Amino acid sequence: MKNTLTKFLNLDDEMYVLFQHGIQIILFDTIGFLGVIVQSFYFQNIIIGFTYIAVFSQLRVHSGGYHSKTKLGCLISYNLLYFLFCLLINSFIFNKYLNILLTILCSYYIIRHAPVEHIFAPLNPINKYRNKDIVLYSLCFFLILYIIFIGFNINLYKPISISIIYTSLLMGLLKKSKYYRG
């Protein structure tokens, strides 16, 4: 298979490894997203599921935080976090005023500390600065949507809020672990 791909796409060994890594990322992300989509159908929250995928994935990629030791662990934890969200969606955490307070506090934490670095995924200064900017702009955009949704009592504020809360918790977990690069 490798020989066929390298000949067909005209790849050297280094580019083949990069190509293979990209395919693995796409495959695992697709499986993770499909898990959330299946759960969304089960819990009858399809739009909320897609909102969760968009917000949480964007914040997680650029903010850092706890990383699983394996890709399978990452896949399981991503889907488990969404399952917990579905169980929490109508709980006390979504009392509007408590939710607003938690979202503000967690947003502040993300802005102050993002990106946090895992020792096995260090960032060079340019990427660190770039990720901080992306997190800041993304968070501002999501908070504007959050304010609009909460103001008009549209339930899409919930996946935005829980994504912000999860992201800050995962960042905090990494900062307290032995894998933090500070």
Would you spell out the secondary-structure blueprint of this structure?
Blueprint: H1 2-9, H2 13-43, H3 46-63, H4 71-88, H5 96-113, E1 117-118, H6 125-151, H7 157-175, E2 180-181
Antiparallel strand pairs: 1-2
Helix pairs in contact: 2-3, 2-4, 3-6, 3-7, 5-6, 5-7, 6-7
Task: Tell me what the structure shows.
It is built from seven helices and two strands, in the order H-H-H-H-H-E-H-H-E. The chain has 182 residues and is an all-alpha fold. The protein has one domain (2-181). The chain has a two-stranded antiparallel sheet. 26% of the residues are buried. The model has no long low-confidence stretch (mean pLDDT 86).
Provide tags for this entry.
182 residues; globular; mainly alpha; two-stranded antiparallel sheet
